[in-house]
What we know:
Blueprint: H1 2-18, H2 30-49, H3 54-78, H4 88-100
Amino acid sequence: MRAKVLEELHEIDDALASTKQPTQGATAPPELSGELGDLLFTIVNWGRHLHIDAEAALRAANDKFERRFARMESLAQERGLELAQLSAAAWDALWNEAKLNAS
């Protein structure tokens, strides 16, 4: 199954190379959307083979993301920083710190 996931990733890479990437707010080309759908389906199928409930795993990942993002916001606020004004590198640094301090 892992090989199939990698195959689907390569198909997305191929689709990206052969299509114009959408600008912010634009809709992705149908072939790219289709390839992403294939990848998601394959990952869910891999989870099934591993006896993992993919929906439960995704919900847990979303919960973890929300906790970490809230921690990141708290760290920024404690330091008098506005997230909207920070560089990508500063976001990454705060995110990594939030990950280290995550429960």
